[in-house]
Design a protein that fits this description.
298 residues, mainly alpha, three-stranded antiparallel sheet
Length: 298
């Protein structure tokens, strides 16, 4: 398992936009020895951006026709680049967050996956979560380094917790994902962190539908029980910290989608949702194209 490929730097405002621009100009940008000078970041920051741009599923590393390593925008990256390059839309931030968690299990974002999918604590210290991460990793059959886990946890916290000491909300050292308000520092103690239960509108209905369709694709199913959406890894209750009442409200709104509604049904005494026949990326592309002006802005 690889840790710390973020070089201890959390994702910063404007980094993804800069990375997309450079990849579009030169797919081998991140392999250029002069990349730091060209993008205006430090050398380690460039390597960190290389990590984040793939971890968020904005780009992938592939081989070119002449067998050289290059970066290529993913379909998700193309949608973000076309419709919301400055990440002004709440759904876009939620999509990035979902991508980080979705890629995490037994991967570079093991800490992210474990923290959001496996821990029910609503308040915690770093030490408490590290202890739980070590035990959870052992149950998963993973060999871990406590030092590496702490480094990744520190980076994850900086990614999601707003720095309230910064006077300018557009300060370039801020993380865009802090706007989701998934985590905060306790008002009673600066060493205690709080997980927040969100409203579904704070996440964005388009991002929620995308993640539900992705789950269906990965598991080759067109129906999901509401109980699963609430409690299974990589679904709303875990990834977005939604409670059941918010999940029901979101599903009711999605059932009214004019073209791709979900359908409530009861199967084997379970309340289930029948997913529409559309791919996650086609849904996202079409919804961003038609609703971009109506989406909730940050």
């Amino acid at each position: 398992m690889k840790y710390g490929q973020h070089e201890t730097f959390h994702l910063r405002l404007n980094w993804l936009r800069k990375g997309i621009k450079m990849i579009n100009f030169d797919p081998r940008f991140f392999f250029d020895k002069n990349a730091a000078e060209k993008i205006g970041l430090g050398k380690n920051m460039v390597q960190s951006l290389r990590f984040w741009i793939t971890a968020t599923d904005i780009a992938i590393e592939i081989k070119s026709d002449d067998n050289k390593n290059i970066h290529q925008l993913t379909p998700l990256g193309e949608v973000i680049n076309t419709f919301d390059p400055y990440l002004d839309v709440r759904d876009s931030l939620s999509l990035l967050h979902y991508s980080l968690i979705d890629k995490g299990h037994k991967n570079r974002l093991f800490v992210w996956y474990g923290f959001f999918n496996s821990f029910s604590r609503t308040s915690f210290t770093k030490e408490e979560i590290v202890d739980e991460l070590v035990l959870w990793a052992a149950r998963e059959g993973e060999v871990t380094s406590e030092k590496s886990l702490k480094r990744d946890l520190d980076c994850m916290i900086r990614l999601y917790v707003k720095d309230n000491n910064l006077k300018d909300p557009e300060d370039v050292t801020q993380s865009p994902l802090g706007k989701l308000n998934l985590l905060s520092v306790s008002e009673e103690s600066s060493s205690v962190y709080i997980k927040h239960n969100l409203k579904y509108k704070d996440i964005g209905i388009t991002a929620l539908m995308y993640s539900l369709l992705k789950y269906g694709e990965k598991n080759e199913t067109d129906n999901v029980a509401i109980e699963e959406i609430e409690s299974k890894p990589n679904l709303w209750g875990k990834v977005f910290q939604l409670q059941r009442s918010e999940i029901i409200d979101a599903l009711e709104e999605l059932s009214e989608h004019l073209k791709y509604p979900v359908v409530f049904q009861r199967t084997n005494r379970l309340n289930t949702i029948l997913l529409p026949s559309v791919s996650s990326i086609d849904y996202l592309r079409e919804d961003y194209s038609s609703r971009i002006g109506e989406l909730n802005h940050v």
